[in-house]
């Protein structure tokens, strides 16, 4: 249910919106009055969120399939008559692998999802975003800039997303379309929890991820479960970033003590042009 009208009448597509960071972003936009299209290849999660959040529509879509993406964008515009913002959040982080354990096939599949999926959604959304002078927000990763052990393919794909964001921002500035990326650090999501469970000592993995964060805890939890409250220091940075204006095409590379703490609120700030 909307608690604000800041984005009333605006239409937002969130890929990978059925759970984790994507679901949190969808909730934030709905709470501020936007109409949100949840895109996910997991129908059960997407349908559940559609039922939970008034003002959302779920469209089954695999962003690695061009026809799915074409349908996603065309159906969004057919239903709502416009498109104001795309959040390219769909992605995957494989389990830890040393370089010699990786394969070219696995690398290609990850590129299809993390990089080409973002490219394809953006390509088909751009004609409509140019009309509305809208926004593209790509979810990259901090490790795309600083690296990560046992994650060569993932780091490469996220570094490419950040680079692509910069190029898009330059190209689309003439149309008034803003293009940004957010580079989160460790955020407690179902994916992060699942990856930790695959390690020999999940508790130690979670502790290591926790200590790698400047405040000393895993950052934002989009849907906190029992016993996992939202960290109290999230609120003030979230309020701060929800007030950042977006005067033009800029690319933010993710500041460790700011953007990773308030992903959804930063999407709100950038997604529709600031306050």
UniProtKB/TrEMBL annotation:
Pfam families: adh_short (PF00106). Residues 211-239 are annotated as: Disordered. Residues 223-234 have a biased composition (Pro residues). Keywords: Oxidoreductase. InterPro entries: NAD(P)-bd_dom_sf, Sc_DH/Rdtase_CS, SDR_fam. GO terms for molecular function: oxidoreductase activity. Belongs to the short-chain dehydrogenases/reductases (SDR) family. This is Hydroxysteroid 17-beta dehydrogenase 14. It comes from Canis lupus familiaris (Dog).
